[in-house]
Automatic annotation (TrEMBL):
UniProt keyword annotation of Metal-binding present: no
Protein name per UniProt: Probable membrane transporter protein
Transmembrane domains' residue ranges: 6-35, 47-68, 80-100, 109-129, 149-173, 185-204, 216-237, 249-267
Lineage, broadest ranks: Bacteria, Pseudomonadati, Bacteroidota, Cytophagia, Cytophagales
Listed InterPro entries: TM_pro_TauE-like (IPR002781), TSUP/Inactive_protease-like (IPR051598)
GO CC terms, sorted: plasma membrane
Membrane topology, from the record: Multi-pass membrane protein
Length: 270
């Protein structure tokens, strides 16, 4: 009972962060899921694969619930969301097939990738945090930059389970000089589409080792379920809170959670 309650709490926090910061709930899920999989006996050699797959599963619902709230308020931007999503799906699926779901991608490699990726995002976020209120969106869309954003986000999502928001928001914020709140809404829309594609892919994958626990591909519904229930409760609350916060506050909160994940992953490597 305690095990599932902790997963439910992680879902509550993940859903809140998803709506508040626009990064999906993965930044919380990748902290709790390795612990959960160790507890239920998933082989250490496939902790990374199961963590990424189930984090993306929870992230899909976190982003979906948050995006539905944005749509109700007219904060949906298909001209940016669709091209980013297309390239993100391509990069994400190729990465899952050729890199992640292979013996090479160990738990240690996974942690190192997360640390380096989030380290770069942390520097970028803190460097630009004080400038958020001065950003003005450009009128034209740079489709080359949108495609690069999508490719980078899909690669990051598939390698870390974070959903891609840690790439999308800084790219749009700095590349397009777009306000962080609009970038957040676009990020959630992209995450909804691309995480769904990667979840479906993982449902039909065969784990490299025999798993005694009931599973469908790399998805464990008994683990992801409590996360999703918690997410359902808080995702829309996070969106509402984000409308009341200053853009700089959102940026600093984003940075705080990045630091938390980096510290946890460093401790796992030591």
């Amino acid at each position: 009972m305690d095990f599932y309650f902790l997963l439910f709490l992680a879902g509550l926090i993940g859903g809140l962060i998803s709506g508040l910061l626009g990064v999906g709930g993965g930044i919380v899920y990748i902290l709790i899921l390795p612990i959960a999989f160790n507890y239920i006996g998933i082989p250490d050699q496939e902790i990374a694969q199961f963590t990424i797959a189930n984090s993306l599963f929870g992230t899909f619902f976190a982003a979906l619930f948050s995006t539905s709230n944005h749509i109700k308020h007219g904060e949906f931007y298909p001209k940016q969301i669709l091209p980013i999503s297309i390239f993100s799906i391509i990069a994400g699926l190729l990465s899952l097939f050729f890199i992640v779901n292979t013996p090479f991608y160990s738990r240690e490699v996974f942690n190192v990738v997360v640390i380096f990726l989030l380290g770069g995002m942390l520097f970028s976020t803190l460097f630009n945090a004080k400038k958020q209120n001065q950003f003005k969106e450009r009128n034209s869309s740079n489709y080359s930059l949108l495609s690069l954003t999508g490719l980078s986000a899909g690669l990051a999502a598939s390698l870390t389970g974070l959903g891609g928001g840690v790439i999308i928001i800084p790219f749009l914020n700095q590349g397009f000089k777009m306000g962080v709140k609009k970038a957040k809404a676009i990020s959630l829309g992209v995450i909804t589409i691309t995480s769904l594609a990667m979840v479906v892919f993982n449902l039909f994958q065969q784990p490299m080792q025999e798993i005694q626990i009931s599973h469908t591909g790399y998805i464990l519904f008994q683990v992801a379920g409590p996360l999703i229930v918690g997410t359902l409760i808080t995702a829309r609350i996070g969106v509402k809170w984000s409308r009341k916060m200053k853009a700089t506050t959102v940026s600093y909160l984003f940075a705080a959670f990045i630091i938390l994940v980096i510290v946890k992953k460093i401790l796992e490597l030591i």
